[in-house]
Design goal:
Layout lengths: L1 E7 L1 E2 L2 E7 L8 E2 L2 E3 L6 H13 L3 E13 L4 E11 L11 E8 H5 L8 H12 L4 E2 L8
Parallel strand pairs: 1-7
Antiparallel strand pairs: 1-5, 2-3, 3-4, 3-8, 6-7, 6-9
């Protein structure tokens, strides 16, 4: 089982997506997201993944989506956070990410942008846009 964490980053009415370099999803656009490592909290993981994939620092402001998917031989749980962007300088490792770009909602909901998982990405962004966001305080880090 994998736990995936990611974030909806919004700036001036546009949403940041990253373009995958991994062979399986090559060229597809996704939210900045990745797997939780065994030695970190959910909060640490999402900030790390966003930083690795976009170069941006964020403040976590809420939870806008919790998802679950059964795969052929595995399953994953995803937790997507709403964020406040704290920095502007986009940087990424070109071995992992081909590009990072701000998209309007209209661009994302058109068929012109190849999304890695349309329901997953647009669902999280719609929740953030519609303020269907749980307060960050509902996430408790247990010791």
């Amino acid at each position: 089982m994998a736990i995936v964490v990611g974030g909806v980053l919004e700036k001036d009415g546009k949403y940041l997506l990253v373009q995958e370099a991994k062979e399986k999803f090559y060229g597809k656009w996704n939210l900045p997201a990745g797997r939780l490592d065994s030695n970190e909290t959910i909060f640490e993981a999402v900030k790390r993944e966003i930083k690795e994939e976009s170069g941006l620092d964020v403040e976590l402001t809420g939870v806008c989506q919790i998802g679950n998917s059964k795969l052929e031989d595995d399953l994953f749980v995803s937790i997507i956070f709403s964020t406040k962007v704290l920095s502007d300088d986009i940087k990424f490792d070109s071995n992992e990410i081909l590009d990072a770009k701000w998209f309007s909602y209209e661009e994302l909901s058109s068929t012109k942008v190849q999304l890695r998982s349309e329901n997953f990405i647009l669902g999280a962004i719609n929740n953030a846009r519609n303020k269907l966001v749980a307060p960050i305080s509902i996430v408790e880090i247990l010791n």
